Amino acid sequence: MALFDKLRVKGFMENKWGKNESLTKKQNIYSQDALSADEKQSFVNDRQELLAQLTPREKDLYLLLLEGFTLKESAKQLGVKYSTANTHMTGIYRKLEVKSRAELIINYRLIKGEEYDE
What's 97's DSSP letter? Predict the structure, then answer.
């Protein structure tokens, strides 16, 4: 089972929590030994390899999205049409194997080794 799928099975990425549930609780599953240290490192290594596949323009958009810009704001910052930014975002999601902005942010934080405490 792929590590990302394993995280979903453990409830890490699944939207089974209410809309008001913070990402912190989901992230705590990762930090509370839902995965072994080797699995965590393998996950991080896999994510870093996927990040390396992004084009320079996708990387620019990725960083803007992580900073909290909306897609519309990001398109303006990059000087491209919204539809072009949307195409880049689709490529980012596909290459990083994520389905939402929340997963994108969680991936980034896990790669950076951030810990999550309530």
Answer: T
**Predicted confidence (pLDDT) per residue in 75-87, tens digit:** 999 999 999 999 9
What ranges do the domains of the chain cover? 3-9+23-111
Both tokens of 53, joined, read 């596949």
Which pLDDT tens digit goes with each residue over 50-80? 888 999 999 999 999 999 999 999 999 999 9
What CA–CA distance (Å, rounded) separates 53 from 105? Answer: 17
Prediction pTM value: 0.65
User: Domain 3-9+23-111 in CATH: superfamily?
Assistant: Response regulator (3.40.50.2300)
Cβ atoms < 10 Å from Cβ of 52: 9
